[in-house]
Structure formats: structure tokens, C-alpha cells
Amino acid sequence: MTDKFEKEPADATPPVSKEASASASAASVAPEAIKAVPVRHWGRYVSAVIVLALVGLLVNAFATADKIQWSAVGDYVFDDTVLKGAGRTLLISVLAMILGVVLGVILAVMRLSKNPVTSWVAWAYIWFFRGTPVYVQLLLWFNLALIFPMLNLGPIYKDEMVDVMTPFMAALLGLGLNEAAYMAEICRAGLLAVDEGQTEASHALGMSQAKTLRRIVIPQAMRVIVPPTGNEFINMLKTSSLVYAVTYNELLRATSTIGSTSYAVMEMLFVACIWYLVMTSVFSVFQFYLERRYARGTSRSLPATPFQKVKANMLSLSNWRR
Questions:
Q1: β-strand partners of 158
Q2: Residue 229 contacts by C-beta under 8 Å, 6 or more apart in sequence?
């Protein structure tokens, strides 16, 4: 006896209906590419044109001023006296800033100390130097011989104060000690910005107070301290012009001396401004990359560098033209 129905092979494909075949062919067709059109910010373009026009008018007013001898600016911008003055400005600014930062950190730690004496001394220092003009402080240091004619450190050093308090020393102490008061508040703000849990966790791991401050607290506080510190240094470059009062021959004094003899006073001021802008620009670049370095611990994406910003703008412009 034979079977009435023949068995189908195991690998036979099931029959496909017409509707399923049509839907499968439709799904196999690639979707049409989406053409994204960037949003046009017409207000930005109009405002940029207006600002550029105003800047052009301002530059034209300076360039066409009949009473300004622009050739004198080019003649004296690399003059030896000017270059030496710029070097002295840079030197006194860097040294005064180093002195201010070191004393500022010490004063900030003293201010946060649980010892009432050290805390009060730090507060009094900050109160005095922030409450008196820098110009007055410079003159006080320069005329310190009126109060202390001799500097007597026992067997270590002894000399007349007039010989010790040179214009350079008076400028360094006047700028550095004044800057320390401001840096103390900046450092204190940075230290207070670190969460107390960080200190508690480090103590739980067995770290000492000094090691916790050096390895845990200060690195985290730097992201708060660096921006205002960079701002203070740039301000120091300009504030150093006040040492003119103690006869320290910095940039502004050098250009003023040339201007008084060459009758190009305004032109020499422009020369001084050029060098101040150059020094400020260079240190602004350092400040940017320093801030970017200390932002790694808190920001998921670091701020774009100037090169990356230019590249992004160029890509945006090319996409807009398409």
C-alpha cells in the first residue's frame, strides 16, 4: 500500500504571496537623501556689517589724522630705548606676579586657618593693601629711608636703606605686596570652591592635611584660580606703568622720555600701546591653554582652540554656499 500524499522536501521555500513580494521590493529601495538647509541668521550678518563699518570709520579717522606723524611710530617701535623699557616692564611684572602668587597662597591658607591669630593677621594684611592706592604704596616703599635709615639684619646684612631701596626694589615690593592681597582672595575663593567631601575622602584614605591640600584640593581649585589670575597678570602689565613714580625706567617712562625730546608725545604713546598689546596678546594665549588644561577634570568636551574655531567656521561657510 502506498501513501496518497507525497512529502515535500525539507529545504523547499514556502510560497510567497504577491502582496509580500511587493512590500519587500519597496523596502529594498534606498530612501532619498535628506538635504539639510542650515538656518540663515540674517540678523548676525547685518550686525556684523554694521560693526565692521564702524570699526572702518574709526580706523580711517586715526589713519587720516593730519597732526599724527605715523612715520615716527614706525621709526621708534623697535628703538633700543623702547625695547629695553618693554623688557623691564615684562621683568618687573613677572617678578611681582610671582611674589604676589606665592604670598597670596600663603595668606589664603592663613585666612582659612582655624588659628584666630594667623587668620586675623591675613585679614589685616588684605584689608590694608586693598584699601590703599598702589601709587601711595610705591612712594612709601621708595621713601622708606625716612622711617628706617638703616636696614640692620644683625650679622646677616646691614646697609643704608637708601642703597637698598633702589627703584627696582621699590617697584617690586610695591607691586608684589599689593598683588598678594588680591591673589589671597582669589586663592581663597578657589579653595572654598572644592567640595568638602574631597577632603574627607582623602583623610579617610590616610592622607595628611598638607598632602590633601597639595594633591587633592589645589589641583581642583586651579580651574577656579587660573582665569582671574591670568586677568590679574594682564592687569599687572598695565599697572606696572605706575612705577614711573619711583623713577624705574619701564616702557611708559622710556617712551615719554623720547616723546619729550622728539616732540612726538602722542606717537610715543601709540608705541607704548603697541607693546602693551603685544605682551597682553601673548599671555592671553598662555592663559587660554592653561585654562583648557585644568578644564579636563570637569568638562566633557574641552573648549575649541582658535584653529578649531576657524576650521569649524570655514566648514559652516562652505555648507552654506551649497
A1: 152
A2: 101, 183, 186
Residue 317 pLDDT level (bands cut at 50, 70, 90): low
Place of cell 606696572: 240
Distances (CA, A) of 271 to 239, 250, 277, 279, 284: 17, 13, 10, 13, 20
User: Cell for 198?
Assistant: 574631597
Summarize pLDDT for 273-315 with one digit per residue, the tens. 999 999 999 988 888 888 877 776 666 666 677 777 777 777 7
CA dihedral 15, 18, 19, 24 (to 10 degrees): 80
The average pLDDT across 248-271 equals 88
Dist. CA 220–CA 212, nearest whole Å = 11
CA separation for the pair 174, 168 (Å, rounded): 10
CA gap 158, 209 in Å, rounded? 39
pLDDT in tens, 219-246: 888 888 888 888 899 899 888 989 888 8
Sign of CA dihedral 285, 277, 101, 195: negative
The x, y and z cell numbers of residue 69, run together, are: 606723524
Q: Kindly report the backbone phi and psi dihedral angles of residue 152, in degrees, each rounded to the nearest multiple of 5, phi listed first.
A: -115, 105
83: left (phi over 0), alpha (psi -120 to 50) or beta: alpha
